[in-house]
Amino acid sequence: MHPGDLDLESAYDPFIDGAWTPPADDSYDEVVNPATEEAFTTVARCTEPDVDAAVAAAREAFAEWREMPPAERGRLVYAIGQQIRDHLGELAALESLDQGKPLSQAKSDIESAARYFEYYAGFTDKLEGRSIPLGPDKLDFTIREPYGVSAQITPWNFPGNLFARGTAPALVGGNAVVLKPAPQTPLSSLRLAELCAETDVPDGLINVVPGGGETGAAVTSHEGIDTITFTGSVPTGQTIMRTAAETITPVTLELGGKNPALVFPDADLEATAETVATAIFTNAGQVCSAADRALIHESVYDEFVERIVSLADDYELAPGDEDADMGPLASAEQYEKVTSYIDVGQSEGATLATGGTPPDRRGYFVPPTVFTDVSSEMRIAQEEIFGPVLCVIPFSTEAEALEIANDVDYGLVSGIFTSDVSRAGRLARRLEAGNVYVNDWFVDTQQTPFGGYKRSGIGREKGLEALESYVQSKNVAINIGDGGGNLPGA
Ligand code: NAI
Ligand code: MG
Predict the structure, then answer these.
(1) Distance (Å, rounded) from C-alpha 211 to C-alpha 215?
(2) What is the CATH number of the domain that holds 169?
(3) Residue 422 lies in a domain
(4) Is 452 in the pocket of ligand 1 (CB under 6 A)?
(5) Closest ligand to Cα 461
(6) Does the annotation mark 46 as catalytic?
(7) pTM, whole model, 2 decimals?
(8) Per the CB 3.0–4.6 Å rule, which of 38, 47, 232, 457 could disulfide with 253?
(9) Which helix H or strand E contains 476, and what residues bound it?
(10) What is the distance between the alpha carbons of residues 240 and 335, in angstroms, rounded to a whole number?
């Protein structure tokens, strides 16, 4: 479907307890198309009473959901995946319009959203415990139980996809969900919640309360929330962690990265340059696992720069519905942030090898930009820019490459480009990152655990690991002796 063919409402309410529910204080914010800078609809800004209603609905749905036979729950979760597939074109068009990304990238994000539900669905009846040998007079075993209501606070770079990344394992663990999407991109989450409610799941199983930081804080501080999953910036992650300390609520945080691609002279340079270009310019660089820093051995530095600049210059920019190589940034704030980092890079003395100057057109477009002669202490090499800006840093030895790679507060992903398998293995062990790619990038699928070392976060998304955030273990000890139990100290 083309975004122009979408049947849009003029205002979107929160989706609570299986229905569109007018917000308590009747306030709405504009939703902007980043390719035109024009508002095309409005969305409710939820306040505490809306969050109360969403949490209450989720608690009620949870009571029903957790008691359902696991295989039945699995069938329902799988049906959500099918429902998403059945509306793939519409959801992709909505995502592209709201977020700015090219239509085919939006399609791939939404298809991957369906995959999350399909992948996790089969696990509802395999959340097994262990039995622990305490001797002949005891029967001891663990059971894995849901927490209750999972809060999901999502960002604007992959809104529909991240809806699924968190919601699918939460449901499979037996939890209900209250999700707050980012104010820049609320629409796909609202539509996804409505589509989920059209399957046979209990009303209130997935509630969506749009709004900004205040709405998010009302969700994360709510007494009725049992676990929090957040993806976004480090400062907001810190705020959420502090809030969670009040109620002793577990948090899973995915806080972005400043990810290095280490390129050695024995790499296939043509393929490597193509991979790095895709890894930094996809979704206009607004990807937590983007290749932000290219660390290039001095002997192939000039050749790599030449190749990457030529690839960058070939990118075609256009609104998402024209499905070019790159769309605009998702919002005015992000445009300001990225362009100001381009100024910072120049004033720090890095060389602007290409890009940097936004095209003279409406929309938050920033071209693929490559800085060379970057050194590790520069701000552009340390701070997350979250735009199509690559920093190229030279190195001369493997040890130096490793030192530069680890010389940041972040530790989400990293990549090694070499044909020497021993070198790849050596570095994979020593890179401070939750994911290491070798001669590849973005290889994370539903099946592979994903998350950060250091300030890139806590806990893991994706894979079977993600389920750990949504189930807690209970140990049950039964005295099966024919006398009393032998209490310690008795
Ligand atoms: P943010 O971390 O403030 O926003 C992410 C989500 O948190 C949004 O839904 C937002 O409304 C919500 N939020 C904000 N304050 C909150 C609070 N006090 N309590 C609960 N929820 C709250 O990030 P923002 O401002 O949208 O982007 C700033 C930077 O963060 C980006 O430039 C980028 O560097 C980074 N970022 C990283 C992402 C990642 O994938 N790890 C995704 C989005 C942003
Ligand atoms: Mg928008």
Answers:
(1) 5
(2) 3.40.605.10
(3) yes
(4) no
(5) 1
(6) no
(7) 0.97
(8) 457
(9) strand 471-479
(10) 25
